Amino acid sequence: MDKQSEMDNSESLYMGSQPLRDNSGKSSSKAKMLEGSAWMTAGSIFSRILGAIYIIPWVIWFGVYSDQANALFTKGYNIYSFFLIAAIAGIPSAISKQVSHYNAINEFALGQRLYKRGLLLSVGTGIICAAILYFGAPFLKDGDPNVITVLHALAWAVLVIPTMSLTRGFFQGYQEMGPSAVSQFIEQLARVIYMLTTAYFIMGKSGQGDWVYGVSQSTFAAFIGALGGLLVLGIYFIKYRKRLSYLSQHSANELVVSTSTLYKEIIAQAVPFIIIGSAITIFQLIDQYTFFRIMNAVSDYSTAVLNNMYAIFAFNANKLVMIVISLASAMAVTSVPILSEAKTRGDRAEISRQVTDSILLFAFLMIPAALGMAAVAQPAYTLFYHLSDVGTAILQFNSYVAIVLGLFTVISAIMQGIGENVLAVKYFCVGMIVKFIFQFPMVALFSAVGSLISTAIGFMVVNWMILRHINLEYGLDYRRINTFIGKIITYAFGTFLIAMVVTNGLYIVMDPASKVQSLLVIAAAVVLGGAFYLYFVLKSRLADEIVGARAAGLRRMLKIS
């Protein structure tokens, strides 16, 4: 057999495979997407739930300072998030995409070399961005000196997280989502344990401690969590080291790429990921630096009142809604290497199918989850914070906005997967301009809700532009999509109505201010509403479009004909 034939066989062996597993047989893109989404969704959901549950005791221990603490936490975290994304520099997603590309042509050694070069970049950008965040804190405080203390605490996490994120991207390039999901959960677990421990000892049961110091330690927990997540990834590397070595030794080694070219390749792929990856954070920063100025110009509310309003929409409601958005994030991460692989093969039909499947999976999970969150907004807000009509209304509205943000997360990842990074950035810039145009009038008219309205409008414009482009380039099966989503909306709306009836009905006899009773209301609404949705997607065979033969097995188990 000649060398070219061996190369062709190697390509066919690894194309569409998960090579870290001993049996590297092919599996369909849908099967890989489902498995990857299951791992990433589980990791994201459990992490988000854990990251929301801690709020209950945290708010209790901070007592009367809780809303002020949440506002300070959010101000610091929004700035930190932007610097963190700059430090990560889009490298994990770029590495995931490029490693998948090289694996598809049996150039495993080159993909591993790319990862090692990426490590040097991530360490360097981490050090630089951490230093800028730490020493630049006085210039970023925007009139609140307490923000300086929080940014100093957060700078330490910027040192570690880029390396952790890069390593997750490397495993994702091999289409192994388990390491990312497990490390994500352990990261959150370590973070929450540290947060609650320090909050308890600093604030005490009386809630009369130094609340600013308490918030700074709660944010320093990001560094502790990152160490935990990095440790888990190290264990996975030890587990797979022999397999990685084997793949490297048996690479085709047909491509010769210099170190400088590798760096250029990483940077060229990474820069657009910075902007797209920080899209939601950029919109939140626009809110942070304009909301108070606009409200001061059109109202006479005190700083304390504005901080409370800001905390409600930017932290309180957003924290719960991010549980729902994490569904979309999980699917987005899964789709990038699969699409990159199809792009490498030049398989336009496969790209079209994969994009359509991604949109259907998004609708299948996201729409009922968002409507369900809106239905239980009152007990959810009460459980995690306190009874508040304003908080409930904002959480309800933000739940609908989550669908728009989630769709952007998925389709922007699709654009990156098919190599349309620069165009995705251009579309986002248009959306950002739209956000700025609507920000002042919306906030002036609707205060906190106005920020959410301008965000929704901006991302709706971006979503329309991206979907239009993908359809023109690859074609989308809109007939299938419209039929599918029409049924999803019908069943999801039924779920919403049932959850609303259950919630309002139980509150006739229950205390709406009780956290324990709020938990019982949520449980009843979720079980009954979820059962309705599950029954009809199985009964109508809609679930078969997503999970295939597994749906038939589930029908038999539940005795649904």
UniProtKB/TrEMBL annotation:
Coiled coil: none annotated. The chain crosses the membrane at residues 38-65, 77-96, 117-137, 149-171, 192-208, 220-238, 266-286, 320-339, 359-381, 393-414, 421-438, 444-467, 488-510, 516-538. CDD domains: MATE_SpoVB_like. Keywords: Cell membrane, Membrane, Transmembrane, Transmembrane helix. GO terms for cellular component: plasma membrane. It is a multi-pass membrane protein. It is found in: Cell membrane. The keyword Membrane applies. Residues 1-29 are annotated as: Disordered. The keyword Repeat does not apply. Its main location: membrane. This is Polysaccharide transport membrane protein. It comes from Pediococcus pentosaceus (strain ATCC 25745 / CCUG 21536 / LMG 10740 / 183-1w).
